[in-house]
Amino acid sequence: MITNMKIYIDQSGRVEYTGHSTVVAYANGKSKAIFISSVEKRKIQNIFRQAGKLNMFAYKTFATLIYLVIKADLHKISAIIIDKEYMGREDLVKKLLIELIRRGGDDFDPKNIHFDLIGKKNQAHKKAISVFRGREKPDIIVTKKELLEWII
């Protein structure tokens, strides 16, 4: 059952910046954030490097973090608006996200995934930055092992 829940997604601490953690959050009235530490990101990055796929590290990790933060609420979501983090690579992020959703046993119309500039006033941005700065606790903390279950 899909309700009419449109969510916004933002990232604080870009995935490819492995010197610090990353938070991906969504909001639509309620909000949820997923956190991965810099240490865990570097472990994942090394696996991509060893596989000769370093160029896919940021996109696959970002899409996987989005999927994991929305997975439990996916049946309620009607549209996903993702902040333009990776200009020119939106189609790739969307494709990777749809693959994860289908692999997880759900279906979601790709036409309902959009990219836009979210802005600092959006609740998704506020949640992501608050968790990133340590003012709030994340709803989900993910490790290399949990992320790799979906990335590989």
Q: Would you mind describing this structure in some detail?
A:
The protein is an alpha/beta fold and about 150 residues long. The protein has a single domain (about 5-150), classed as Nucleotidyltransferase, domain 5, CATH 3.30.420. The chain is about 40% helix and about 20% strand. It is built from 5 helices and 6 strands. A 6-stranded mixed β-sheet has the order 5-4-1-2-3-6, with helices on both faces. Strand 4, helix 3 (about 90-105) and strand 5 form a beta-alpha-beta unit. Helix 2 crosses helix 3 (about 90-105). The longest helix has 14 residues, at about 55-70. The mean pLDDT is about 95.
Layout of secondary structure:
Layout (H helix, E strand, L loop, with lengths): L4 E8 L9 E6 L3 E6 L1 H13 L6 H14 L6 E7 L6 H14 L9 E4 L6 H10 L7 E2 L2 H8 L1
Parallel strand pairs: 1-4, 3-6, 4-5
Antiparallel strand pairs: 1-2, 2-3
Helix pairs in contact: 2-3
Number of domains: 1
The stretches of 5 or more residues where confidence is low (pLDDT under 50) are none
The main sheet comes to:
6 strands, mixed
Average pLDDT score = 94
Please report which band the strand proportion falls in: under 5%, 5-15%, 15-25%, 25-35%, 35-45% or over 45%: 15-25%
Given helix and strand content, the structural type is alpha/beta
Please identify the oligomeric state: single chain
Give the H and E element order.
EEEHHEHEHEH
User: What is the fold-level CATH name, i.e. the topology?
Assistant: Nucleotidyltransferase, domain 5
Based on DSSP secondary structure assignment, what is the total number of beta strands? Answer: 6
Helix coverage percent of residues? 25-40%
Strand order of the largest sheet: 5-4-1-2-3-6
* CA-atom Rg in angstroms: 14 Å
